Amino acid sequence: MKRIQAHEIEKKYGKGDTAVAALKGVSFTIDAGEFVAVMGESGSGKSTLLSIVGTLNSPTSGRLMVDDVDVYALGKDKRADFRRESIGFVFQNFNLLPYLTLAENVMLPLATVRQKKAKKRSLAIAALERVGLAQKAERLPSQISGGEQERVAIARAIVGRPPILLADEPTGNLDSKTGKEIMGIINTLNNEGMTIIMVTHNPEYAGYAHRVLRVADGMLA
Amino acid sequence: MTLGDIAISNLRRRKGKAFFVLAGLLIGVSTVVALLSLVSAMREDINHKLEMYGANILIVPKTENLSLTYGGLSLGGVSFEMQEIKEEELENIQNIANAKNVAALGPMVLGPVTVAGQRLLMAGVDFQAFRILRPWWTMKGQEPGDDGALLGSEAARLLGLGIGDTFHVDQREIQVTGILETTGSQDDRLIFAPLAMTQKLLGKEGRISMAEVAALCSGCPIPEMVKQISDVLPGANVMAIQQVVKGRMETLNHFEKFSYGVSALVLLVGSLMVLVTMMGSIRERTVEIGIFSAMGFRGSHVIRIILMEAAIISGLAGLLGYLIGFYATKILIPLFSEGHGAHVPFDPILAVGALLLSLFVGLAASSYPAFAASRLDPNEALRAL
Fold first, then answer.
1. Interface of A with B in 47-66 (CB under 8 A)
2. CATH class held by domain A4-220
3. What is the DSSP annotation of B282-329?
4. B201-217 exposure pattern, b = at least 16 Cβ within 10 A, e = fewer
5. At what angle are helices B286-294 and A76-86 packed, to 10 degrees?
6. What pLDDT, in 10s, does the model give residues B44-85?
7. Which SS3 state, helix, strand or coil, does residue A125 take?
């Protein structure tokens, strides 16, 4: 179970007179198993919000509690461990490593885990099966379509079975049909109990979420 | 999938960068190996030539007389009216600790003789020992038996004698069996005859004027042998002929210091090449490192990936660098050695040293880029996505 609580999160980029406030005291709670869409105009602060929830971007002030753990009070290594165990990332640009096969890309989050190679491989193949790409496991990212690359990115995000999935406009670069397929997979993961936080511009896809957090000018509307 | 697999996959992908780092280290390591091998081979060559130079220890009587030079070398107290060493005492040399290092022992009796009105120096020698003590001698004719003589080229010219001619010393007829080619030394003006005959002619039976010793010098302790011989011949002055090779050794020592300097410089340039290439590689991989961070890699994991890549390339550079340096030395050594006699042996210590040196330089030059990569802000990397 992972309950996320943000308390007065503030984030400024730069210093002094040139500092820009991306988030201005944002507070919210996301319960375990919830599917939350984050919407807002470009530059509104939604990606900053996602990176802070993803423990990749320290807030200027405020606290992020996950199951009563103040994650930004943890040291860098502990925070990296927390990220590996608790959070899966899906990026808009897929960000698969071009020199690794699909199976190897999916195994990437397991590279630092002490497990036998065969076990890691079976977990990766199982994750690829979840997104319907097990038969293309040995191909390189350049040998599959954009939609398939996004599905591999989802497989990579869930291979370590994290309780939280963060998706930054996962359908942004895909056509409507492929976008719906991706949303179907994400929705299924949520139905299985995974907490989903997804940044999107598309109101149709936001409709899959239980609720929408609207960010405008660094604040929740 | 392990961190090692990621490192190997990345090297395969970035072959150009990997090759550049490899080339930097390869040039450094092979230069160091070649220079050190050259110095080592040349030192070995000089040691070998010491044996070829013939005698390297002289035994002369202790005397207060003015010294006489012989072949450009100081003979201490050798003079026409000098003291002598008893021939039987020379046998004590067989009992010294380093007796096995004595390749040849050549007693010599010297004395003036008058031949056809000319005053000349006659040297009674053991011709068998002199084959080792004077390897540079070439002669027309042959060595004398028990009663012949070998003339120096100048002595033959002065006396107007040729092979087969005879001359008289104190009524004794002596046949010239051979004439030396010009040596450029005092040997050219001497009459060489068998030791026993000369001792008899000079009235010095059982006595010698001096002796020469050729020690096998590869690793044999010449100063120690000089002391040992001095101990068993208390009435003699024993000295090492060092000036023959000293100049050459000094040149070699200068070359050795120069080699170390060049090696250090080349290694520095090589390590800078590695540093710059690795830093460039890290900049190119900002996004990739950001993804690693998002996946929960610790900074130490990123460092390990980069250092593993550096270790693989450095290890390869160490092995190839040794082989290139080794074969380069084989090709170059004839240019640095006279007579083409130098040998370049496989040196396992140098091979392991080259590997360790390459690993050290590669890892040291990559440590800052690896550290910088581990400190990359993952959010910056994600913003670059």
1. 51, 54, 56-57
2. alpha beta
3. HHHTHHHHHHHHHTT--HHHHHHHHHHHHHHHHHHHHHHHHHHHHHHH
4. bbebeebbbbbbbbbbb
5. 70
6. 777 666 656 655 788 888 765 545 555 444 444 444 455 688
7. helix
With residues binned 3-state (H G I as helix, E B as strand, rest as coil), the percentages for chain B, rounded to 5, are: 60, 20, 25
Are the C-beta atoms of B372 and B303 separated by less than 8 Å?
Answer: no
The answer for residues whose C-beta is within 8 angstroms of residue A38's C-beta and 6 or more apart is A46, A49, A50, A197, A198, A199, A200, A212, A213, A215
Asked if A113 reaches chain B (Cβ–Cβ under 8 Å), the answer is no
Which residue on chain B is closest to A93 by alpha carbon? B385
Q: What ranges do the domains of chain A cover?
A: 4-220
Token pair, residue B263, equals 């090696």
Q: How many CA atoms are closer than 13 Å to the CA of B344, on its beta-carbon side?
A: 23
Q: What length does chain A have?
A: 221
Give the type of residue at A133. L
* pLDDT, one tens digit for every residue, chain A (221 residues): 678 999 999 999 888 888 888 899 999 999 999 999 999 988 888 888 999 999 988 999 999 999 989 999 999 899 999 999 999 998 878 889 988 999 999 999 999 888 899 999 999 999 999 888 899 999 999 999 988 998 899 999 999 899 999 998 888 877 888 888 889 999 999 999 999 999 998 899 999 999 999 999 888 87
A97 touches chain B (CB under 8 A): yes
Instruction: For residue B81, count CB atoms less than 10 angstroms from its CB and return exposed for 0-12, middle for 13-18, buried for 19 or more.
Output: exposed
From the list B9, B294, B301, the residue facing A99 with the nearest CB is: B9
Assigned token pair, B3: 């961190």
